[in-house]
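Practice problem: predict the structure.
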Amino acid sequence: MAAPLIGLTTYREDAAWGVWHQRADLLPAQYADAVEATGGVPVLLAPVGQSGAADAVVARLDGLVISGGADVDPGRYGAAPHPRTAAWRPDRDAWESALLDAAEAVGLPVLGVCRGMQVMAVHAGGSLDQHLPDLVAHEQHSPGGDEFGAVEVTTTTGTRVAGLVGDRLSVNCHHHQSVRDHPGYVAAAHAADGTLEAMEAPGDRFSVGVQWHPETAADVGLLAGLVRAAAAYAGTR
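Answer:
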């Protein structure tokens, strides 16, 4: 059986390499490396606004990762921007929402990473707390710059997430926002300060969101779980 194809959503940003400095579709290589290491074939997905594109893409994939990145447009959940909410990308918000619609329609396995979990919650009709330090009075979840915060999380007994990563683990976080409510998903992990760090859809379908970055850690249990679910999905087609 062929290795499952895993789509990874990308950033569209100003970038520099070699003699070039221009707009580019990019993603940290750790995502693709982690997918490959767990038996999948990574496919980078540029933001597309064309009608029907998400359905066409999902029809060719076996799994989907909604990657990390900039804040979600607060207008998508009916909120005014917090002073610290910035740099949202309407094209990416719309593209990832369309991908989630298409994935849900066919039962495609999905993993949301950091912003990806937030996109999944908002897509389901939920909302975000736009600046987590306002709630927890510290910046451990996003210490600034290109550093990850080391956060201890406890998983919820009986959840898919607990089965993949265990009861407790230290994770790499880089999020100043958090999920406030998440219709259709159950809480799967929390930080000691009460921050929701993972959620999942009940039932057999792999539909999981985490606030941390599993692609940066030696323990890639979540990505391995996605790839296994994608292989099983591919076997049903």
